[in-house]
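thought: fold this chain, then report.
action: predict
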Amino acid sequence: MADILPGGINVGTFRFLTHRYDAEKGEAELAYSFDDGEALFERIRFPYQPWPSDPSRQAAFERALGLLHLIAGVSYYKACVPSVMDTGDHRIDPGLARFLTDLYVHGLGEFAYVNGLDLAPRVNFGVNEEDELPEIELDLPERALVAMGGGKDSLVSLELLREGGLEVQPICVGTSGLIASTVEAAGLPLIQVDRELSPKLKEMYDAGALNGHVPVTAINSAILLCASLLYGYRWVVFSNESSASEYTLVNEQGTPVNHQYSKGIAFEKALRAMVSSHVSPGIEYFSLLRPLKELAIAGKFSTLTRYHPVFSSCNRNFHQDGPRISSRWCGNCPKCRFTTLALAPFLSPQDLVDFMGTDLLDSAEQEEGFRALCYLGIEKPFECVGTVDESRAAINHLAGKDDWKNKAIIRQLAPELASLDVPEFSALLSERDEHCIPASVKSHVDL
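observation:
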């Protein structure tokens, strides 16, 4: 039976149609539909039109492309969230079904919360195969394909790997000029993979389809797994920190909702398992910064001064349809506030003003936003920011520094934290044990 959504959209089934790769164009095409309606085509373009001559890499790429098709479908499924899912020719074993169910339910957790939906009974990936796939052995070069995001984290990863003497290749999904400028500052070439969503999606939104946050890191991870096979890299390196695993809030069903689900350790481990069992154990997907919290990463980035004029962590710079601000920082969002709070302990007020253009910690108008970061009467925002403990610890730490203690936000919030159990700032700078970094990489990197 079809579901009727706002706008009168009537849907019964979400279908995964076809996925293919045109080696001459270097273009992957993913197709989806609702019921028997018009196909929605997504296109992903890999520059230089690569196609490996090794049959094993070709076979592994076809598997990776199939996994990408299933993962990227989350961007389309959310428009109508039907309770019937037709996976077409895809081979779905129990492990893959669990992985996809978790991704769609938890990766769309924020979307469901905002739209007042319970996705758990609606996401149904049926099992159609019980046998395990035969293993594909690969001998990829031990070098790193490093996902770049334009912010401090990926730049820290890039420098840690370079300092460790490992061969690196920066890569990003999209054509952001800001990301290109950060990599240019590193003196390295950048591979930019272009992802073009179906234009039919916007038509559906205009007609009343649902919209909202998707686990884009999961999609980008799957795209870069394909890229690793095309370009020949054993390691696919992201820069997700331990802080990303903290949930944002708990919904009415009692389920934690994490804006950063696909940046968390649970997703990283789950995708690694899928890569090993459904693509090849010859590829290693991991986050280099997983042992660190945001504050520790900020400390490392504070010394990389050549990147300070060109980086940005403000998400208003990074949208599918291009930047929504004219400068690198909007100065009025959770990312701008948390970046300020994380870097302030390691920099002077003037250092921050030099690249952000404003002193957010001395603006009384910013108090509500900083309260949210510290969970002081306002819920933590749906954004890629550090943990509540980190924000609180940073405020306390700055209250003891002469150049920061008289700033408006510090004077207002520090006394309110006195009665709370706030961890020591220094304790949040130490390395954590839980990570998935291969020993062959960890031995070269000084975290």
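thought: worth noting. The chain is about 35% helix and 15% strand.
final: tokens above.
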